[in-house]
Design brief:
Helices cover 40% and strands 14% of the residues. Helix 1 packs parallel to helix 2 and helix 4 crosses helix 5. The protein has an eight-stranded parallel beta sheet with strand order 1-10-7-6-5-4-3-2. By secondary structure, the protein is of the alpha/beta class. It contains eleven helices and ten strands. It has one domain: TIM Barrel (Alpha-Beta Barrel), CATH 3.20.20.
């Protein structure tokens, strides 16, 4: 089965994301389990946990979770760094409680202190939370290449993976964002680029992809998502991806912007049609 879906709202209750996904034909979905723009993380009540687990089984939609935006695991500011680790620990605990297998996290910014310092901070943060994993695997997300960010170059992700004990235990992997890859200079419209990605990271370590077109040209360094087929990656680029079994065997999540010209689920249906060709 092709596991594909959108990032969905949890408004009202965490479990209602499943209803929203089922209504548009999702077989996978991504959610936040806490406020994406705040530090506070509230534990779900027992009835919500029960409903969440029951709907997952009934509707057969595979959920993944994304960390909030504020945490910065590469930060050189002690207060921010410690709060980021605490947020990661709390999100891991909630994911484990809900039965969510994968938690996706950005790596953050070294704040001008240099890539080496930032990479070391991320590795140390992962070691700190290693006892809080439960049944959850952390997925590191690549970045678009904005100033001081960590993870735009895939070699950075590979270095973190190689330096972490979580990887040795199979509890650390990757989530690749197609817009970020393109913005960072990887021409994912070609099979050659995907071969390079496979050599650098090992696509077997990639468990999810964010399927987003790009509003700006190759190598722009700008993290601006576009609707599938309407950006610079284009339908031709996504056709290359959807013919690659090493990609379509992963969890595919769309984080594309709202567009009144598109019906709900239309972009997902386009990817399915490219997959079926």
């Amino acid at each position: 089965m092709l596991r594909i879906g959108y990032h969905l709202s949890i408004a009202g209750s965490l479990d209602l994301a499943f209803d929203r996904g089922a209504a548009i034909g999702c077989t996978a979905m991504q959610i936040f389990v806490s406020n994406p723009r705040g530090w506070e993380v509230k534990e779900p009540i027992a009835t919500v946990v029960k409903d969440f687990r029951e709907k997952r089984e009934k509707l057969d939609i595979l959920p993944v979770c994304h960390m909030p935006y504020l945490p910065n695991l590469a930060s050189t500011k002690e207060e921010t760094y410690n709060k980021s680790i605490l947020s990661l620990e709390k999100n891991l605990r909630i994911c484990d409680e809900l039965g969510i297998k994968y938690l996706i996290t950005h790596l953050g910014s070294h704040l001008g202190k240099g890539k080496k310092v930032g990479l070391e901070s991320v590795v140390n943060a992962l070691e700190t939370v290693s006892k809080s994993l439960g049944g959850v695997t952390i997925l590191l997300e690549n970045q678009a290449g904005h100033a001081n960010s960590i993870g735009a170059r895939l070699e950075d992700l590979a270095e973190i993976h190689g330096g972490s004990s979580l990887a040795k235990n199979g509890r650390l992997g990757f989530c690749l964002d197609t817009c970020h890859l393109f913005a960072a200079g990887y021409d994912i419209r070609t099979e050659k680029a995907w071969d390079e990605i496979d050599r650098t990271l090992g696509l077997e370590k990639v468990h999810a992809l964010h399927m987003n077109d790009a509003k700006f040209e190759l190598g722009s360094g700008r993290d601006r998502h576009d609707n599938i087929g309407r950006g610079f990656v284009g339908e031709t680029g996504f056709a290359v991806m959807m013919k690659n079994k090493k990609i379509t065997s992963k969890i595919l999540i769309l984080e594309t912007p709202p567009n009144p010209e598109l019906a709900e689920g239309e972009e997902m249906d386009l990817l399915r049609s490219l997959y079926g060709q």
